[in-house]
C-alpha cells in the first residue's frame, strides 16, 4: 500500500514573515557587525579577501544560523540582496577608511554595542513573527547576537569573545536586550520593543566595558596529589 507523504502533518510555520522594524534592526546589525569583523582582519594583517570573509561571516553568520534553526524557509540573507549589500558595504568601509585610531575608536565601541543590541532584538522579533514560543525567541535573540562572532573567531583560531574573561558582559547584554524586546512585544508594543531592546543591550555593553565589569572566573586552587583511577574519565592513576 502506497503512502502519500504529502498527507503527513508538520508544524505550521509562517515562512518569510518579516516586519519592517525587524528588517531595519537586522540590516543595522549586519552592517555594523561586518565593519567590526573586517577590523579584526586588519588586526590580523589579512588581505582584501580576509576583510570580505570575516566581514561577511560577522555580518550575516548569526542570522543564517538563526534562520536555519527556525526552519522557516531559506535564510533571509539568501533571499534579500540587501543583506549582502550591507555586509559587503561594511567590510569595504573598514578596508578603505582608517577606523581603529583617533576619534573613531569611541565610535567603534558604540558600534559594537549597537550591533549586539540590534541582532538581539532582530532575532527575538523574527522568532515571534514565525510563530514560535517566547522561550525560543529569547534563545534565538542571543544566538543571533553571538553566532556570527563565534564563527569568525573560530576561523581565526582564537577563543570566542563570548567565552573569554573580558570586561563587557557580552552574552548578558544580549540576554537583557532580548528579554526587554520580548516583554514589550508580548504586551503589544512591537515598535517600542525594538528600540528599547537595542538601547538596553547597548547601554549594558558600554557601561560594562567602561567600568571593567566582567563575569566571575573560577579561582585556581592548590594542586591536589594524584589519586588512583577508578575507571572514571578525568581521574589520574597514582604513580608507582
TrEMBL record:
Keywords: Cell membrane, Membrane, Transmembrane, Transmembrane helix. Residues 24-97, 111-184 form the Glycine transporter domain. One of its GO terms (cellular component) is plasma membrane. The chain crosses the membrane at residues 20-41, 48-65, 77-97, 104-123, 135-155, 167-186, 192-209. It is found in: Cell membrane. The keyword Cell membrane applies. Pfam families: Gly_transporter. It comes from the Bacteria. PANTHER family: INNER MEMBRANE PROTEIN, UPF0126 INNER MEMBRANE PROTEIN YADS-RELATED. This is Trimeric intracellular cation channel family protein.
Amino acid at each position: 500500500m502506497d503512502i502519500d507523504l504529502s498527507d503527513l502533518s508538520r508544524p505550521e510555520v509562517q515562512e518569510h514573515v518579516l516586519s519592517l522594524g525587524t528588517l531595519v534592526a537586522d540590516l543595522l546589525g549586519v552592517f555594523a557587525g561586518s565593519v567590526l569583523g573586517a577590523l579584526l582582519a586588519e588586526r590580523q594583517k589579512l588581505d582584501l579577501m580576509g576583510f570580505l570573509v570575516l566581514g561577511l561571516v560577522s555580518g550575516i553568520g548569526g542570522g543564517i544560523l538563526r534562520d536555519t534553526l527556525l526552519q522557516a524557509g531559506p535564510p533571509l540573507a539568501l533571499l534579500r540582496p540587501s543583506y549582502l549589500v550591507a555586509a559587503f558595504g561594511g567590510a569595504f568601509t573598514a578596508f578603505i577608511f582608517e577606523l581603529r585610531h583617533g576619534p573613531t575608536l569611541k565610535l567603534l565601541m558604540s558600534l559594537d554595542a549597537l550591533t549586539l543590541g540590534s541582532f538581539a532584538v532582530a532575532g527575538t522579533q523574527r522568532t515571534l513573527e514565525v510563530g514560535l514560543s517566547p522561550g525560543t525567541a529569547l534563545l534565538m535573540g542571543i544566538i543571533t547576537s553571538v553566532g556570527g562572532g563565534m564563527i569568525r573567531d573560530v576561523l581565526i583560531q582564537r577563543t570566542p569573545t563570548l567565552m573569554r574573561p573580558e570586561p563587557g558582559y557580552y552574552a548578558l547584554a544580549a540576554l537583557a536586550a532580548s528579554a526587554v524586546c520580548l516583554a514589550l512585544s508580548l504586551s503589544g508594543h512591537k515598535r517600542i520593543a525594538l528600540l528599547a531592546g537595542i538601547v538596553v543591550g547597548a547601554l549594558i555593553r558600554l557601561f560594562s566595558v567602561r567600568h571593567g565589569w566582567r563575569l566571575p572566573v573560577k579561582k585556581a586552587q592548590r594542586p591536589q596529589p594524584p589519586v588512583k583511577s577508578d575507571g572514571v574519565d578525568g581521574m589520574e592513576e597514582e604513580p608507582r
